[in-house]
Amino acid sequence: KWCNLTPLNGSALNLVVVEYDINGNPHYKCVFNTQACEQLNAWIEGFQGIFNRMTIYNFKWFLHAMLFIHTQ
């Protein structure tokens, strides 16, 4: 339940594809959403000046906090 949060009900077509194994059996496979990554990178780029002056621990905390606030 907690290992794969990608919905398999067809609501996220760009995150799940059906692939077939060598026996022809279908199975679901998670795919990478490059459009979402590009949007995230463009949004994060605005914080580049702040990130450059942070330690790795501050960076991880700040990024987590900003993503949490952004999704609320």
Account of the 3D structure:
By secondary structure, this protein is α+β, with helices and mostly antiparallel strands. It folds into two domains: 1-31, no CATH class; 34-72, no CATH class. Helix content is 44%, strand content 14%. The longest helix is centred in the C-terminal third of the chain and has 15 residues, at 56-70. It is elongated, with a radius of gyration of 17 Å. The model has no long low-confidence stretch (mean pLDDT 80).
Largest sheet: 2 strands, antiparallel
Number of domains: 2
By helix and strand content, what is the structural category? alpha+beta
| Order of strands in the sheet with most strands | 1-2
| Beta-strand content | 5-15%
The overall average pLDDT, rounded, is 80
Please outline what is shown here.
The protein is an alpha+beta fold.
Q: What's the helix and strand layout?
A:
Blueprint lengths: L15 E5 L5 E5 L3 H12 L2 H5 L3 H15 L2
Antiparallel strand pairs: 1-2
Keywords:
2 domains, 72 residues, elongated, two-stranded antiparallel sheet, 44% helix, alpha+beta, single chain
